[in-house]
Amino acid sequence: MVVGEITEDKDIVVIGGGPGGYHAAIRAASLGRQVTLIEREDVGGTCLNKGCIPSKVFTHFAQEFKKTKHLKEMGMEFGEVVANLSSLQNYKNKKITQLRAGVESLCKASKVEIVKGSASFLSESRIGVENGHEFSLFNFKQAIVATGGELQYPDGIEFDSDRVLKEKEIFQLEEIPEELIIYGNDYISLEVATIFSILGSRVTLILNGEFPFDSAISKELFRQLKKQKVNVIKNSTLQAASQAEAKVTVSMDKGNGEIVSIEGSYFVASGKVKPNLSDIGLDRLRVELTEEDYIRTDGEGRTSIPNIWAIGDVTEGPSLAVKAIKQGKVAAEAMAGLQVEVDLQFVPTVVQMSPPIACAGLTEEEARRAGYSVTVSENPVRGNGYAQLTDEKDGFVKVVSDSETDLILGIHMMGMGAAELITSGVLGLEMAARDEDFRFPLYPHPSMNESLLEAVEGLKGDAVHMPPRKEELAR
């Protein structure tokens, strides 16, 4: 440090302005703390600027594009419908700008100071922030690490071309790929596959593992992908992906030593998230890490250093904004002395594909392994009157319960409205609801909500719109 450098005193510093970071900053400010939010790029982080919001613009566009056939059938008259990705990019960028400005406005209204630059710990109470040729020093009372994750990809992929893409880059395209090859088995791979199959691409999805869903969801998912003419290649390991002129060649190992190559016009790979901790100076501190190099935290988000907290992708658990947001609020409240904690048992998993998937709680397989006496019920969406009139008949609701106690253990959905309806499932799971707790309330009619009700009623064979169960043969 140069003699004479000025060090500013801060109360709380939050490193990273993504969903977790800015929620933590605003909540802490609302509790009377003075907060400095440090972000090296744009407030909103990867989620708002490159990930969640851009991808959901595309999923929404594809879902609306898919509806045009049904709307014409109903009598809505319009000319030829064309998917113009150039216009879609303008819309996407406009919405990102608006949302980012909204977050910045909220920070300003809450008197959260936003500092631009890259932060690095110098000690357990001091941090340096570099922004170009400028360097600032802050002494802090408490700090929250919310630097997010960085994506790692398989070896052999040549990303130095305009047709071999990382998952976030696919949402920058201004043309619809004629042939799109996707590598991955996570939610973003599924969303990309259904988006571009709806928009007219010939899509090949190379799975690098099993789908992370209940077996019934996975089975229906394969059926839906086949229905949408997505070519699925299972049990394959990527060897190489490279571009030559206007074609991409992808080589993969089928598992028996057989190397197979396919060609397409574009290739996109989904990476695995690893904590972004490489350049924030943690090696200077006594912060305890897990075996997977995540920051170890307690239920409040506190690290092994009492005045330093960590949230989001730098901690263990699913790499989801919903986790980071909850952790951010809890950390801010814990700093204020409130009795709070984070419980990730019922984190909802949502895939905004067509049709959407939403799940919470135990799968049937997990429940059986845990030793429960498992009863399941599946209610097909096609039996729902509202699904019929909106022509959203694909999917089902599956409920997993313990037959000895009637405790609901898991809820798994595929179908339009699943992302919204899963909130009822999460609330029930958190309250340790039994089937009677789901059956007792009145559900709006007609609505997709009734599919959840009938799935629960089906646990006892009482659902009206489901055929009676076949009696098991006596043994």
Beta-strand content = 25-35%
Using the coordinates above, name the CATH class of the largest domain.
Alpha Beta
How many domains, as an integer?
3
Terminal Cα span? 82 Å
CATH structural architecture of the largest domain: 3-Layer(bba) Sandwich
Helix content: 25-40%
Name of the CATH homologous superfamily of the largest domain: FAD/NAD(P)-binding domain
Main sheet properties:
7 strands, mixed
Mean pLDDT: 94
Provide a count of the helices.
12
Shape: globular
Task: Work out the number of β strands.
Answer: 22
Alpha-carbon Rg, integer: 25 Å
Question: Your description of this structure?
Answer:
- By secondary structure, the chain is an alpha/beta fold.
- The chain has twelve helices and 22 strands.
- The protein has helices at residues 19-30, 45-49, 52-74, 85-109, 187-198, 215-227, 321-335, 364-369, 385-390, 418-430, 435-439, 449-457; strands at 7-15, 35-39, 113-116, 118-121, 126-131, 134-145, 149-152, 164-166, 179-183, 202-206, 231-233, 237-244, 247-253, 259-264, 266-269, 272-275, 308-310, 349-351, 357-361, 374-380, 396-402, 408-414.
- The strands form five sheets. Strands 1, 2, 3, 4, 5, 6 and 17 form a seven-stranded mixed beta sheet that branches. It has a five-stranded parallel beta sheet with strand order 8-15-9-10-11. A five-stranded antiparallel beta sheet has the order 18-19-22-21-20, with helices on both faces.
- Strand 4 and strand 5 form a beta hairpin.
- The longest helix is centred in the N-terminal third of the chain and has 25 residues, at 85-109.
